[in-house]
Design goal:
This protein has 283 residues and is mainly β. The chain is built from no helices and 18 strands. 32% of the residues are buried. Bound molecules: copper (II) ion. Copper (II) ion (CU) binds next to loops.
């Protein structure tokens, strides 16, 4: 693939209050899965076990138990479909939406129990969205669970509106610029978005490295701290570690809720992963 190849990403918006599109494909669902899910319902539930009390800026070993709702049996790694090169993606957010972490837990020797470590960077409330596709339903789901609270009072969402961001030091600085095909964002209306990446000299940056089989992973979260928009890279995915991408990352954003949305773009360059925050308002 050429470095100019555009990466097309489409963001599908899910509300976790039960607005999942009823795309359950009963034809492809194995018999033993029948009745496992209704439209808008997750087949899996999650429970969090913090192995140590939460302390700001301190690494916290954590276990997550995944259980099939239908029969109350643990969800085994062999029962999960690999997506974006991983079985389970954890999207961790704090209530201010300024701390976003993307983590892949690993199985333990206890069935249905997976472990990971994370470090809360804000004195805030934390939630995790477990992003996985059970083989049984072949339906991607997001299971929200509370991760703990480091704050005695509710924290305000950081509603900074921004379309530019830079990261890195003097020699490895990278500039990111977000633009859309429309000036305004309307609830329920699709908009085409583009992130343009430039290097420290202001030249188009074409050395984005693959992260989980793509040149960017984009996630958007609403100020309600409940609704997240997920990402499907469409068209081109990278298969080789040596592939490079940029300077444009195209995506499709269709918000299903008005208000402030934080958009996090995860990329890799110079061997390092970067999380780029943008903020927009949806009418
Ligand atoms: Cu992931």
């Amino acid at each position: 693939m050429t470095s100019k190849t555009l990466l097309s990403i489409s963001i599908f918006v899910f509300s976790f209050m039960g607005n999942l599109p009823s795309a359950m494909s009963s034809e492809n669902t194995p018999h033993n899965c029948e009745g496992a899910t209704k439209a808008g319902e997750n087949a899996i539930k999650a429970e969090i076990f913090l192995k140590e009390p939460l302390v700001k800026d301190k690494k916290t070993p954590t276990e997550i138990e995944l259980i099939s709702k239908k029969d109350n049996k643990p969800l085994l790694p062999s029962e999960i479909k690999e997506t974006h090169t991983k079985l389970i993606h954890l999207l961790i957010f704090d209530q201010t939406l300024t701390d976003y972490q993307h983590i892949h837990p690993t199985p333990t020797n206890k069935p249905g129990i997976y472990q990971f470590e994370w470090t809360p960077k804000e004195a805030s409330q934390y939630k995790v969205w477990v992003d996985l596709t059970p083989l049984c339903t072949n339906q991607q789901e997001y299971i929200m669970a509370d991760l703990g609270n480091l704050s005695k009072s509710p924290q305000k969402v950081d509603k900074t509106l921004n379309s530019t961001y830079s990261t890195g030091g003097r020699s490895d600085k990278i500039y990111f610029n977000l633009s859309f095909d429309s000036q305004e964002f309307m609830n329920g209306k699709a908009a085409m978005g583009k992130v343009l990446v430039k290097d420290s000299q202001g030249h188009p940056f074409t050395q984005l490295e693959p992260v989980m089989g793509a040149f960017a992973h984009i996630v958007a979260i609403n100020e309600d701290f409940k609704t997240i928009a997920h990402v499907h890279p469409m068209g081109v995915e990278t298969s080789k570690e040596s592939d490079r991408g940029g300077p444009e990352l195209d995506f499709h954003f269709e918000p299903n809720k008005p208000g402030f949305w934080k958009i996090w773009v995860q990329v890799k360059a110079y061997g390092k992963e970067f999380f780029i925050p943008f903020g927009i308002n949806v009418k």
